């Protein structure tokens, strides 16, 4: 019996088993392998142009890391064209024969979609029925290789369906184009799991994307939360228009607040052509609510409306005032030798949040803990005392206006 | 530099602040393939937004608001890689462990926070002139830039929670 060496580069799994002739097998993870003996291997994917090369043992036909041109086998003096397209295979080498007489059979073991790498996109996509929709196959990274660097074919199908989604344009309502899947338009029945598969001869990765299509009345449920601070300009952005804004087009969005068209008068609201945002020139708390932007999108001869709904929350800006050290006020603090001394540093921060105020001690311009490493002098913890009531004295006449604020403090 | 690690209060506990950060284009932060990316989260997906947990870094001049930023309850910190062209990384280190670290050890985790027109910028302490930035496109990683502009957005809103 002649020992046959097999080389396999980036095999997804080497299945081990005991063959009838008493050969032994080992289970291996992916990576370059060189195994002697009778082996059952699971090939990743073959395409019509791939050749499983069988050559003299001991030489790995592909060296080095990376995906390379694909999987190859090494077996004596025989070439076998791969017969099956897009199907992972198990190649059984039933025994080792003298040179030139290897016996094998090929068996399909798993579905065509069993990729080495399967991931589920971390977030579902939500859309409205009746509107055009684009799903993009998320880019993936494999061992620091960018998917865009690899010549990988990309296909789409819906889980539960046996047919691939057709590519290109045409009559189809759902079609794939590069890494995009288009719904022109989406319908409630389109909800489900869509799988995009990237593959070449040796590698395959697929990603599941969940899509949920809502009735038009549910636009608020799938709105995009955004925030703006009052008393300053605020920006409401019409998100995720990628695919619908044609290059260089001076597109124009229509804006609505709670389905009422906004008066873009450049005083309260500004929206410029070719931009995807609305400016609220000075935000007030009344500006909170649901905003809808609408883009007209033309495909072939049909016009569609693409809408996005934004839930704008208004936030009051953080009130800040200059901190005032109210103690110590004297430059000299008297102390008795050997006694314990505590010097508080008291700071009045008015209505500011304590978080924006830092208070610390230094000794000769250096932080205390760095000067007194042994801890003879330490900085104490911060205490916050709340005095919630501002008493405000207001005086006004036609010439002017003055306010003085004071607070009541426990003695 | 072991001497710097000696503190008056060894193992002092940091007060960790929790904030929400979004860029001037309303993009919030979330994880995608273990990377912090900025984009628009829709409906129920908005729960995926990463809150920022941060502490001041006491090793630096406090007037520059030096802070250390993290996500996931302070278990993954934002760091600048070494080298002239820094890359933003997420490192699995507890922010509370960095609190008592030396200036040298914590520099690449430190950002100086500056405030202008209601927005904040975060400048790397290890790479002056480099700022935290988002891409003008959606779903792209949070990064660092020394060329702010419309392609690299460095202005953020910061809401204390």
UniProtKB/TrEMBL annotation, chain A:
Repeat is among the record's keywords: yes
Localization terms from the record: Membrane
Keyword entries, A-Z: Disulfide bond, Glycoprotein, Immunoglobulin domain, Membrane, Receptor, Repeat, Signal, Transmembrane, Transmembrane helix
Pfam family, one: Ig_2
Main localisation: membrane
Annotated ranges, domain Ig-like: 130-208, 236-307
Coiled coil: none
InterPro entries in alphabetical order: Ig-like_dom, Ig-like_dom_sf, Ig-like_fold, Ig_sub, IL-1_rcpt_fam, IL-1_rcpt_I/II-typ, IL-1_rcpt_II-typ
Recorded topology in the membrane: Single-pass type I membrane protein
UniProt KW Phosphoprotein keyword: no
Family: Belongs to the interleukin-1 receptor family.
Protein name: Interleukin-1 receptor type 2-like
Annotated source species: Gekko japonicus (Schlegel's Japanese gecko)
Lineage of producing organism: Eukaryota, Metazoa, Chordata, Craniata, Vertebrata
TrEMBL record, chain B:
InterPro entries found in the cross-reference section: IL-1_CS (IPR020877), IL-1_fam (IPR000975), IL-1RA/IL-36 (IPR003297), IL1/FGF (IPR008996)
Annotated Pfam families: IL1
Intracellular or extracellular location(s): Secreted
Keywords: Disulfide bond, Glycoprotein, Secreted, Signal
UniProt superkingdom: Eukaryota
UniProt main location, coarse: secreted
Family annotation (SMART domains): IL1
Family under the similarity heading: Belongs to the IL-1 family.
PANTHER family: INTERLEUKIN-1 FAMILY MEMBER, INTERLEUKIN-1 RECEPTOR ANTAGONIST PROTEIN
Function: Anti-inflammatory antagonist of interleukin-1 family of proinflammatory cytokines such as interleukin-1beta/IL1B and interleukin-1alpha/IL1A. Protects from immune dysregulation and uncontrolled systemic inflammation triggered by IL1 for a range of innate stimulatory agents such as pathogens.
Protein name as catalogued: Interleukin-1
Phylogenetic placement of the source organism: Eukaryota, Metazoa, Chordata, Craniata, Vertebrata
């Amino acid at each position: 019996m002649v020992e046959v060496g097999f080389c396999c580069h980036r095999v997804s799994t080497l299945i081990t088993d005991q063959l009838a002739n008493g050969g032994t097998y080992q289970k291996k993870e992916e990576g370059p392998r060189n195994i002697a003996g009778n082996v059952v291997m699971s090939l990743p994917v073959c395409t019509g142009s791939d050749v499983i090369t069988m050559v003299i043992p001991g030489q790995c036909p592909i060296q080095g890391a990376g995906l390379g041109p694909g999987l190859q086998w090494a077996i004596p003096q025989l070439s076998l064209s791969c017969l099956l397209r897009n199907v992972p295979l198990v190649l059984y080498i039933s025994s080792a024969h003298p040179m030139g007489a290897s016996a094998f059979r090929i068996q399909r073991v798993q579905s065509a979609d069993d990729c080495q790498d399967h991931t589920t996109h971390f977030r579902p996509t939500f859309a409205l029925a009746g509107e055009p929709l684009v799903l993009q196959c998320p880019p993936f990274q494999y061992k620091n290789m960018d998917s865009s660097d690899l010549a990988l074919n990309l296909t789409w199908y819906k889980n539960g369906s046996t047919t691939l989604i057709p590519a290109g344009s045409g009559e189809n309502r759902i079609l794939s184009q590069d890494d995009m899947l288009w719904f022109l338009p989406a319908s409630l029945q389109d909800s489900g799991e869509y799988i995009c598969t990237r593959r070449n001869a040796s590698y395959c990765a697929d990603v599941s994307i969940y899509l949920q299509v809502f009735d038009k009345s549910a636009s608020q449920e799938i709105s995009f939360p955004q925030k703006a601070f009052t008393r300053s300009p605020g920006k409401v952005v019409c998100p995720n228009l990628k695919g619908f804004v044609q290059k260089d087009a001076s597109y124009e969005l229509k804006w609505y607040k709670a389905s009422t068209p906004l008066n873009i008068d450049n005083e309260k609201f500004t929206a410029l052509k070719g931009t995807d945002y609305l400016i609220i020139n000075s935000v007030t708390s009344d500006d909170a609510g649901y905003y809808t932007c609408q883009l007209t999108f033309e495909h072939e001869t049909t016009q569609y409306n693409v809408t996005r709904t934004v839930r704008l929350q208004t936030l009051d800006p953080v009130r800040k005032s200059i901190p005032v050290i109210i103690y110590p006020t004297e430059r000299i603090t008297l102390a008795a030798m050997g006694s314990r001394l505590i010097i508080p540093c008291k700071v009045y921060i008015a209505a500011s949040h304590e978080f924006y105020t830092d208070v610390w001690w230094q000794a000769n311009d250096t932080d205390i803990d760095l000067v007194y490493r042994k801890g003879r002098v330490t900085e104490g913890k911060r205490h916050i005392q709340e005095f919630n009531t501002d008493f405000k004295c207001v005086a006004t006449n036609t010439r002017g206006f003055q306010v003085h604020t004071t607070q009541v403090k426990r003695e | 530099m072991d001497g710097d690690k000696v503190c008056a209060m060894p193992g002092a506990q940091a007060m960790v602040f929790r904030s929400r950060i979004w860029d001037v284009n309303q993009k919030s932060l979330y994880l995608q393939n273990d990377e912090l990316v900025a984009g628009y989260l829709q409906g129920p997906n908005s729960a995926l937004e990463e809150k920022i947990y941060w502490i001041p870094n006491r090793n630096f001049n406090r007037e520059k608001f030096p802070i250390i930023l993290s996500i996931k309850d302070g278990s993954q910190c934002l760091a600048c890689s070494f080298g002239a062209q820094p890359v933003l990384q997420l490192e699995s280190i507890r922010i509370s462990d960095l609190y008592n670290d030396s200036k040298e050890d914590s520099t690449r985790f430190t950002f100086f926070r500056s405030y202008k027109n209601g927005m904040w910028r975060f400048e790397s302490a290890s790479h002056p002139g480099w700022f935290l930035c988002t891409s003008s496109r959606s779903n792209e990683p949070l990064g660092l830039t020394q060329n702010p502009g419309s392609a690299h957005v460095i202005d953020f809103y910061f809401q204390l929670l």
